[in-house]
Amino acid sequence: MLPVFWNSFTYAGLKKMLLNRLAVPLRTLPKLTRAHRWHHTSLTNELIENMDKKATWDRFYTENGSKGQFKNFEWFFGFHSVQDLILPVLHSMAYSQSGPLNILDMGCGTSALGPCIYRTSPCAVKVTCADLSSVAVKLMQNHANSTSVQPCNPSSALAFLELDCTQLRGYFGARSLDLILDKGTTDALVRSKEGQVKAGQMVKQCLQVLKPSGSLLQFSDEDPDARLVWLEREVRGATLAADVGVQELGELRGVSYFCYQISSRTSTLVQKY
Description:
single chain, 36% helix, globular, alpha/beta
């Protein structure tokens, strides 16, 4: 059974977050005290109940994108909070291959995480920002086209893709990705009515498309006592053996965040908990 606090947020807390448009944790939404009134009650209720549904996120990003000028929406935190973790990982991976590193930002929404990696990575990367919502993907693509951001490495590439993250094998070949990033996607799934099973399917799909030296990094505010138990259970049911580890990222606005690493071999990035 999944931890009780995975569902321990309220309609009021989510309403506050949606208009606040700040990087916020999911399980601590009730603690937010400074925000505006959210009038779209039906959208709020739909989001809470159906975080695993495409139609829900299409509606969310349509409403969020209708406010005028494009603005990245960040769950938890932005790229700068984890760049000192991600960039060294890419640097170490680059030694083992000659071509660009294949990176997937899974459930990207309108986060700047993927584009920031593309823009700042000294080593060549092919970053795919993927989301279930076609609206989010279109917003990201249009923003990238209008800003013409140049990569640090001229061999880097940036792409946007609409996909169901529980069906990665339909888009990526076996052992084709070096790094998969999950910033809040799993956390959103496990809060929906049917999302807990889908979250497990997503982990198993990730292991199938990762290279033997690759890793899945989950960024979450979920406590290791709960998340590690769940992850270890899921990887035991996978066709490929995997290791699970955790590293505490630190505290931001009173909330502790963690990086969970799932890889097909022991990594030096994080230690076993």
